[in-house]
Amino acid sequence: MVMASVAWAQTGPGGGGGSGTLLSLVPFVLIFIIFYFLLILPQQKRQKKLKTMLEALKKGDKVVTSGGIWGTVTNLGKETVTLQIADNAKIKIQRESIARLRADDEEKE
Fold it and tell me: Are residues 69 and 47 in the same domain?
């Protein structure tokens, strides 16, 4: 009889304890919402901005690759870009390797 009353006291007067389970999930939901707004959403915005920049590339654009190479776009393919990196030096790279457009006021060293 003592064991039955202890078990009854742990579940509460409602019997099932379903509301306790829902309350224990609230912190996890809040953590997910915080991660979404601080990590996932900004990353998606950056990827969308990069994709539109890569689609808008044209000949003559000055770019910087993800490897740090500065060059000027001389030819565009479906998946590749040819960059002129010196007077007589051209390289062909994947389009996704371009990290950003270079501003006109950035000096070449």
Answer: no
